[in-house]
Amino acid sequence: MLIADQVCFRYSPRHPWVLHQVNLEVTPAEVVGLQGPSGFGKTTLGKLLAGYLTPTQGCITLAGKPLPPQGYCPVQMVFQSPESAINPRWRIAKVLQEGQFPSLDLQARLGIHSGWLDRFPHELSGGELQRIAVARVLNPQTRYLIADEMTAMLDANTQALIWQAVLAHAAQHRLGILVISHEAALLRRICHRVVDLSDANTIRAQASASERA
């Protein structure tokens, strides 16, 4: 289980709190939606859960232990803009090899063509590059995925293709997912439950696994 326990965060003592006493949990194979107005700390919480940031107070744990300080993090994050997460100097094949090269089945589900592998990132469209960003992190080492507006800038067909592939992979491998999005319709469609970050400073899980079944 991936847990944020009484997490508080601010960038320095002179800055206001971005998050205050946040409690959130995501279980294996569960898809949790996170919504709320811009500026309420949704992306910050995602970065904390993925180990990009360290809580000012409170803790993030995975299966009861802190996130590993070194090596591959079992919690991976995919952002809205794939260009910010992919080395522009690497060919696509090397990008995919950074984690563990995705299976042919996963490549097919994501609509990744073999002809893309020898190209550089700037030679792909935004939708094509986001498929690469997703494929790169969907490997056996990843246990949780933080999807931060992952398909917000893509056309409807590409959005559907990516989410179908991700949800199928999650069901097969018991991958837990936190979906950060302003799209309420998307969250209702794909999530087991949705948490609103603007409801209160403290977020608490509302449903047990048995209640969601």
Account of the protein in words:
By secondary structure, this protein is an alpha/beta fold. The protein has a single domain, classed as P-loop containing nucleotide triphosphate hydrolases (Rossmann fold, 3-Layer(aba) Sandwich). It is built from seven helices and nine strands; from the N terminus they run βββαβββαααβαβαβα. It has a five-stranded parallel β-sheet with strand order 6-7-8-3-9, with helices on both faces. β4 and β5 form a beta hairpin. The protein is globular, with a radius of gyration of 17 Å. The two termini are 17 Å apart. Mean pLDDT is 90; it is low at 200-213.
| Mean pLDDT across residues | 90
How many angstroms separate the termini?
A: 17 Å
Class computed from helices, strands and strand pairing = alpha/beta
CATH architecture: 3-Layer(aba) Sandwich
Q: What is the C-level CATH assignment? A: Alpha Beta
DSSP summary, beta strand count? 9
Please state roughly what percent of the residues sit in beta strands, choosing from under 5%, 5-15%, 15-25%, 25-35%, 35-45% or over 45%: 15-25%
* Helical residue percent band: 25-40%
Shape, please? globular
* Major sheet size, sense and barrel closure: 5 strands, parallel
What radius of gyration results from the CA coordinates?
A: 17 Å
User: How large is the count of helical segments?
Assistant: 7
Task: Report the uncertain regions.
Answer: 200-213
Mind telling me the CATH superfamily name?
Answer: P-loop containing nucleotide triphosphate hydrolases
For this structure, the CATH topology is Rossmann fold
> Which series of helices and strands comes N to C?
EEEHEEEHHHEHEHEH
Strand order of the largest sheet: 6-7-8-3-9
